[in-house]
Amino acid sequence: MTRRRPLLAAAALSLLGPAHAMIPAWPTGPVRLVVPAPAGSSLDVIGRLLAERLGRSTGWSGTVVVDNKAGAGGLIGMDAVAKAPPNGQMLALGFNGPVAFAPHLYRRMPYDPAKDLAPVVMTTLQPNVLAVSARLPVKTLQDFIAHGRQQAGRMNVASVGLGSASHLTMELLMAEGRFTATHVPYNGSPPAAQSVAQGDTDALFAAAPALLPLVRSGHLRLIAVSSRDRFAALPELPGMAEGGLPGIDALVWNGLFVAAGTPAGVVDGINADINAALREPLLRAALHDQGLAVGGGSAEAFRQRVDADSRHWGAVIRRIGLTLEA
Known about the structure:
Blueprint: H1 7-14, H2 18-21, E1 31-35, H3 42-54, E2 64-68, H4 75-82, E3 90-95, H5 96-105, H6 113-116, E4 117-127, E5 129-133, H7 141-151, E6 156-159, H8 165-177, E7 182-185, H9 189-197, E8 203-206, H10 212-216, E9 220-225, E10 251-259, H11 264-278, H12 281-289, E11 293-294, H13 299-320
Helix pairs in contact: 1-11, 5-13
């Protein structure tokens, strides 16, 4: 069943002339929102909040289906969208790892983020949080670095996946803090956080939503955020500069992508709807409660953010000397 475009997007298209008038109405069927992370992960929380809100919108009503495609550090889910028909019916809720980091990490990839994916809008922005096992005798970032040096490689650190911001931020922290540890990658934040809570690993960087239940139960301790300075949504946690590492400033963005070649009018319509949703007080409050800063803005601004992040982390990856196999 064909559904009407949201009025704001339709009005904008009407000003662009006959060429844009030929773009078919969107969406023309169920919209799949691919989340390249497992259910219960911080990315899944964001995806379901957005899907619930968009499902109540004119033109989206009853059409948004969340599709978790976890694995390979997000590559599997993003590859599915990169190879989807360019009609906007399949969206990906992407993040830094499989878009900005992966081209510098992997010798071969199943898709080219710059050529096969089109950024639509940034949805949220947040630092990762450094969480340690409650059993670990550390309460500050300086304590953690000192403990890592004392353990001389015997410490185990988890991540939410190879090549993720969780992984790279810990590698950068070890390089800057001059200690080593064994990296243990997991498929998403829920199992990674559980590994620290159970004592199988000692620490990880991850987004706050997946960690908070284990913090409340007393199994994890949060000691810092990965941004250089304190973060407004998590003001009680010190930044890297307060811990003596001002050179680390690692923020994680999430945002929507479609297959390259999707008509500009469709991209603009999705962008307008997401921006409208992100302005709503209830959704903003729900995201803030998860320790997230609300995004928004134009597709071009998001593209520029992705490109800048790729250049920055490409230099870091080359300095660390990290290479992965897809």
